[in-house]
Amino acid sequence: MRGAPWSRTTRAAILTTVAAVLLAACGSGGNYPATQVPPSTTTPPAKVPTPASATCTPDFLTSYAPLPSLDTNLLTSDKFAAEMTKRGRLRVGVSADSMLLGANNPLTNPSTIEGFDIDFARAVAKARFGDENKIQLVVIPAADRIPALMTDRVDMVARNMSMTCARWGQIAFSAEYYQAGLKLLVAKGATDTTFDALKASTKSVCAPTGTSTIDFIRTQGVTVVGAATHTGCLVLFQQGKVDAIAGDDTVLAGLVAQDPYAVVPKATALTVEPYGLGFNLGNKALVQFTNTLLDQMKADGRWKAIYDKWFAGPLGPAPAPPVSKYGRP
Amino acid sequence: MSQQSTGAPPITSPGTRPAQASGAPAPTGTPTGTPTGPGARDPRLAAPAVPPRRGLRRVLRTTFTGTPGRMRLVAALVALAAAVFGVIGSQTLWTSSAALERADHNTTQVVRVQSIYADLLRADADATNAFLAGGLEKPVQRADYDASIGRVAQTIAEAAEAQPADGAALGALNQQFQTYTALVEQARAYNRQGLPVGATYLSNASAGLRSGALPIVTALNQANTARTAEEFDLSTRSIWLAVSGGVALLVLFGGLIWLARRTHRYLNVPVVVGVVLVLIALVVGATTVSQVANQISSVRSSTFTATLDLATIRSAAFDAKANESLTLIARGSGTAFETSWASQSKVVTDAITDLGGAEAVATQSTLSTQWAVYIKAHQAIRALDDGGEWQLAVNAAGATGAGSANAAFATFSDTATQALTVSAATTSDGVLAPRTVSTFAGWALLLICLVAAGLTLRGFGQRLEEYR
Description:
CATH topology of the largest domain in chain A: D-Maltodextrin-Binding Protein, domain 2
CATH superfamily of the largest domain in chain A: Periplasmic binding protein-like II
Shape of chain A: globular
Oligomer: heterodimer
Radius of gyration of chain A: 32 Å
């Protein structure tokens, strides 16, 4: 009775339509577009530093005349001296990863930062406060040395800093306390061991940003790679991302000590790097006080003792201490 | 009652009948009907499934011409409207149910991704905190680092399996993760020998984690949160159910009237029942969808939000903890890390304040108190470091005894983790709860509509019989 009035065609048409609607309604859910991978945030390229003016008057080795003695009463009671007396300690900007110059030694207990620069810093603290432990070591990367002094975060920087004319415009230096020279570190057995050879084979050289070293190697025509510290360069060197590291012989000696596959080929230093302790430009009295101390140390054998402790092994017997040069008004 | 109200038109129908005849079905009926005048008799003979050996076009023409032909056409339309509503309505409910299931999967993925984030930072907090002690790590800290790394590796694999769309991003994350663990192991080897280069490897690892891995995890988190919201919206979308239901109701009602007028009868009972069934189906469908919408809206505003907040709390807390160690490692140059600590701590306190839902209030006050205890311990460490007592600050930061920052933090992170687990489970239950009803209602709706379609065909069939 029910089937009779409907032709097969009609029924087929109805069924087909229903099936079509059913198919159309079946949405394909849960197919999401792939999650986008954000681009890796790369470190911003190192700022190109202002070219150092090569000459200045007085020259960059010239510091302020020393005080007659280490009597702390001779320190003028300016705001720097007053604040430091109130704090009761010397805040020194140092490196914690430059072996031999200033590096954390976790094997001592408690772990201490030690090295050539640190011994000079402790000597200043002892002269100023009578105790070499009246010191706060503030670890800073190379590029922070001048900003840290200018913003008065530290009283002094003892972090293998070269005295240059450009820097004298921003900070003050003590008299020269060591003369280092720029050299190259390469892999053991490497054939390209000079800037010319590295340039010819388009190899890359690493140096810490914000240093006079990186300024210099930019003029050598090699591919320059920057890192925060020399140890950062060593990591890049070990990862095969750079072929050589440029740095002071003192610094490179510390890197070689950590990697038996790194060598510093014997060569004459490419530049002379006079190390000075850095101060705030306004803290002239502390510079003069430090110069008095440095002169005493150079004269009484303490300077040689510190050199022998850190560098006699890797760099050979102690040279004569650098001569202090004074006359800055 | 329906008989009386729908009984009115048939009384006036004789007068309006010609108008009706040339009105609705006329455009197709009359023009084709008039030229084939003799053919008007044909359908009565051809229609009863006696297949004439002629072309399909002729069959169609003979089937749908004349009064019984039009009747067949109207019947087909009416039945089709009911069937289409059944299909669309049930599909809407099943889609809703499937969307809820996907929303649950996506929520689980969000929690998974957030725990990757938290575990990466937890591992980094361990590695950096252990470094403060030099090469000789505390076995507990080392074990916690290993456990965190293990969980990350496991969860990345689980996440990749759970959501193919995340595959590429998780692959990229895995790459970053491998690099991170490799750098930490290298740092460890150097630290063990007391060489400063180890510290540089470690800080490179931490920096790479933050610049490379964590942004990917954040992208994964955002993508899956967006997917969850999308599915929640889809689960409550009822526009096509309403439209198809309304259309079906109108068409059926129209068909009923048309039939009554055409056949000079009162109401055709099977068709009336069909109309009522479609009305019931529409009510069932609409009620189910609105119930789902209510449930989902309540889950979204309470436990779901709480789950996201708790996940944020945990990640931000571990981020802050890692920054505490990084500040000390930077030894005087850690201002940027301490700033990060402060901003992450604010994220934690803000998210605790935002924790909604009645059941979360207890957790809220507990978390708030415990975080305040940790903040106090952290500030004590900062006071020591800022006062020049770096070594004492390091000792305080490395201590694990009662009252130490590590202990306070562990208490807090345990509470947060536990609350997150509970909240995630509650959310999952809440999201999945309406699924059974939706699925069942979908079948019911389809069945009712198909029955209604069958009934209308039957009702029209009875009248067609009279033309034989």
